[in-house]
Write a structure and sequence with these properties.
single chain; six-stranded mixed sheet; 8 strands
């Protein structure tokens, strides 16, 4: 099957270009729609990307590691999930700051870089185990383009259920897990090379390198380093059983990895122990011992194990080959990822494993299983090549469906976000021209998208946005109070709050009841009952009725951003603030606010 006259890297170049194109498609769609009117925004394809870009923007602006950009605090005195997983953020922020590149531009470039590097890394990884460049190239496209579907998300979920938690390509999410995603496969490659090296010395070098890769993963993304640890357990078990002649080397690698891993986890746990008191509640840490098997990547893993056993029993594959053994470890890893809580008693949003790593592992495992099957069977080479080409075309077609579907679904939000930038820039100019304006003014924007964008394109504080509590700087109770403040100023009534809650508007429901209840898939939250909604509406009505100067001053507003053609009810805000004449820029109008109290 392998064409010896063509370097395998040429095989890898085409899928890398395709992956880069698909990753950039939503951004290119915005460029095509806006033309020369584009204001410089990046397209958000995942709900949490504005939170990550806000933190990076704070670092670009020179803020310290423990900053909370959502409440404009430079140093909270505690660790957050952003400050602990700091390596990817600094890998983006430091070059951006040195080159004078905006955070939005860095995130646009990041989409392309993540897709290309991830595809090349996966191609090279598969080639290391299969030895077949064409199969590896097709396999990489298959894994990356179908990863969303393998988690039962994206267009597959939209078409079948109408509900979507994650769309587009989860591995591209900036910057988690995007920046560290290729490193996971580098880690796996290095561990397996340490098992199979011809000498103990060479194996030791690979083991140390793998340990260092793991140490980097620890400070990159929780779901990747814990997945790497779970995979390592499976790998050592499989190697000890099936690679008996290398048992001493396997044990040596295990000892080296354990030593480096524990060493890297010491500062990690120290940082974690200094986390903000609200972080566990914000991140929905659950205490449970319940097993979980109804997750698509885990089901696919179990099917893969059964299929491998069947093919081995029929002698259709050679079980002890490296690609089959690694495939077995990938099939088995989801069993640990989704059931570790049976032993530990703790579960932290396991859906992240399903969409960010377990789905890709089982798909890669199927590619390696197919490789072993092809090698052990007398398939016609020409026919095999043709089948692989058709498989690649099918994968790319589905990848385009994912990319175009995401671009279409997020088109309106992307345009609003882009049109918000002139208003944010106008506030910056007003801040520079008027010494009376605070250095980090508090801004009220009457739509969630603009409010969520403020920390990415400035150092201002939004009064409230959907990610206000994500760094743990405010408690869920304070987050709810800020949301009620936001809702009150914009003139909404208790009836309108009830309508939003009954309609399950995610941002509003999450602010009032918590993310786990607004979206039970995150942490199996209980369904919200009508009586609970009624009580919360009563609390909001009481909040509005008793609103006083103390409420208006915490925090004090400085600017208001509203749509020029659809202005809100100003009655409540005018009761406490004096608005100037306002300035219009693009779709929005900006008001300077002066307290009346």
């Amino acid at each position: 099957m392998q064409d010896k006259t063509v370097s395998y890297w040429l095989y890898f170049l085409i899928p890398a270009i395709i992956a880069g194109f698909l990753a950039m498609y939503p951004q290119m769609s915005l460029w095509a729609a806006k033309g020369s009117a584009w204001q410089g925004s990046y397209v958000v394809s995942n709900y949490d990307e504005p939170a990550y870009s806000a933190y990076v923007n704070a670092l670009v602006e020179g803020k310290p590691r423990k900053n909370d950009p959502f409440i404009a605090v430079d140093d909270t005195g505690h660790e957050s999930l952003y400050s602990i997983q700091f390596i990817p953020a600094y890998m983006i922020a430091l070059p951006a700051r040195a080159l004078g590149v905006s955070t939005a531009t860095a995130f646009i470039l990041l989409s392309l870089m993540i897709a290309v590097i991830s595809c090349l890394a996966l191609c090279r990884f598969l080639f290391a185990f299969t030895g077949e460049p064409l199969l590896s190239s097709v396999g990489a496209l298959f894994v990356l383009c179908l990863g969303t579907a393998a988690a039962f998300q994206g267009e597959l979920s939209r078409l079948t259920t109408g509900n979507v938690l994650i769309d587009f390509f989860p591995f591209v999410r900036r910057y988690q897990p995007g920046v560290a995603f290729p490193l996971f496969f580098v880690f796996v490659f290095l561990v397996w090379k340490s098992f199979s090296s011809e000498s103990m010395k060479r194996g030791g070098i690979f083991a140390v390198s793998a340990g260092l890769a793991f140490a980097v993963l620890v400070f990159c993304y929780f779901y990747l380093w814990t997945a790497a640890a779970a995979w390592a357990v499976c790998a050592f078990a499989v190697a000890l059983v099936f690679v008996k002649e290398k048992r001493r080397q396997v044990l040596t690698t295990a000892a080296i990895l354990a030593a480096i891993g524990i060493t890297s986890l010491i500062p990690y746990w120290k940082m974690l122990s200094d986390r903000t008191p609200e972080l566990d509640r914000v991140q929905l840490l659950e205490r449970t011992h319940s097993p979980e098997f109804l997750v698509l990547p885990l089901i696919l893993g179990l099917i893969g194990i059964l299929l491998t056993a069947t093919l081995a029993f029929r002698e259709s594959i050679e079980l002890r080959t490296k690609e089959i053994l690694v495939a077995l470890t990938f099939f088995a890893t989801p069993i640990i990822l989704f059931n570790q809580q049976v032993i530990t008693g703790h579960s932290l949003q396991p859906v992240h494993y399903a969409v960010f790593i377990a789905n890709y592992l089982v798909l890669a495992a199927f590619i390696m299983l197919i490789s072993g099957w092809i090698k052990a069977s007398a398939f016609d080479t020409a026919v095999t090549k043709k089948v692989l080409v058709y498989a690649a075309l099918a994968a790319v077609l589905w990848g385009f469906i994912e990319a175009s579907g995401s671009a279409r679904f997020n088109a309106v939000a992307s345009e609003i976000r882009d049109e918000s930038l002139p208003a944010i820039r106008m506030i910056e100019k007003m801040r520079q021209d008027d010494p009376a304006v605070p250095e980090r003014p508090v801004v009220l924007a009457n739509n969630f998208i603009t409010s969520d964008s403020i920390p990415t394109y400035s150092t201002f504080r939004p009064l409230w946005n959907p990610h206000t509590s994500s760094a743990g700087g405010v408690s869920p109770e304070e987050n709810k109070r800020l949301f009620y403040l936001y809702f009150y100023y914009l003139g909404y009534s208790g009836k309108e709050l009830a309508d939003a809650l009954n309609g399950n508007s995610f941002e509003i429901t999450a602010a009032v009841f918590g993310s786990e209840r607004a979206l039970p898939a995150l942490a199996k939250g209980n369904a919200i009952k009508p009586d609970e909604i009624r009580k919360e509406v009563e609390k909001y009505d009481d909040f509005s009725r008793t609103f006083g100067e103390k409420d208006a001053a915490a925090p004090r507003l400085d600017f208001l951003i509203v749509p020029d053609k659809a202005e809100p009810n100003y009655a409540n805000i005018d009761r406490w603030y004096q608005r100037d004449a306002g300035k219009t820029t693009g779709l929005f109008k900006v008001f300077r606010l002066t307290p009346k109290f």
